[in-house]
Design goal:
By secondary structure, this protein is of the alpha+beta class. The chain has 2 domains: 2-103; 132-337, no CATH class. The chain contains 9 helices and 9 strands. Strands 1-4-3-2 form a 4-stranded antiparallel sheet. A hairpin with a 2-residue loop joins β6 and β7. It is elongated.
Length: 338
Amino acid sequence: MDERQASNRTCIAVAALLCALLILVATTAGCSPAGSGGQGGSASASASGSASAAASNASSHPGGIASNPLSTPIEDKNASPDASSDAAALSSAASSAAGSGGKTGEGGANSSGSSSSSAAVPEQAPAKPRDIRSLPAGEVVTAQEIEAFGEDACFTVEEIDDAVFARMQGNSYGADCTVPREELRYIRVLHADAEGAIHVGELVMNVALAQEVCEIFRELYHAAYPIEKMHLVDDYGGDDNASMADNNTSSFNYRTVPGSSNLSKHAYGRAIDINPYYNPYVPNPSTIMPDGTWQYADRSWSWTYKIEEGDLCHRLFVEHGFTWGGYWGNPDYQHFAK
């Protein structure tokens, strides 16, 4: 009986050794090295550990392979009915696991990488140029948009439509305004600021002056003469002081001359104030408009947005018959009127 038990133990040890050898061959052929990630690494480690444990158990039992190298295996009812099948299954499982992770996990990564790289990234279509006619004043536009739309269409003179007139009513065009709407025109232009950005600009002027003023601003645009802002004064509630304080260039506003009951030429759309914050109005030695601009009343030095005698802005308006307020005894450096 002892011989049969010894033989059985020998058989188990041989089977375990065969399993370990098969797993070693499989892992050498395709499994990940120790420490590599993925499921393959874990499965290989688990299978190798199982084989090592089996071999260790066999050698530690009395009558194992070491003590009975020549023993003939005898069927053991407690052993697996097909030791070679079990070993093959273990080897297959180890190879399969190794193929899905670890270094072969790189294969997984590569296949997912090739999958993601093979997915074509759609090219983004170039942005469609905006219709400059629909853009509000102050909007910055690109050279490409201007080219696509056409410069001629960016410098226009039109009758006052209902949308524009709705903005004006109660602001620059009050209930007491005696100037017929038909005598005014809505002008759209482009202008460059001091940083070179191109903006949409707008004005309302008298029909008799609108076209030439539009042409003047086109020349200023080509020369990149800096004008910071150009909105209807209605965007400031018709408040001329607020518009000047924001350095906004504007024209029509049905109002009187400050400190007088006489209508200003702005009331008829026959005057324009350009870059007013940096070119203030000095009605008397103690008053300046807009407030806080005394440093710009001293015309002996230079700064951005300053209108100077002989510069392009001054020259163009004077050439078209406008009078510059900078010549007045109480100078209004922002003001051109005709």
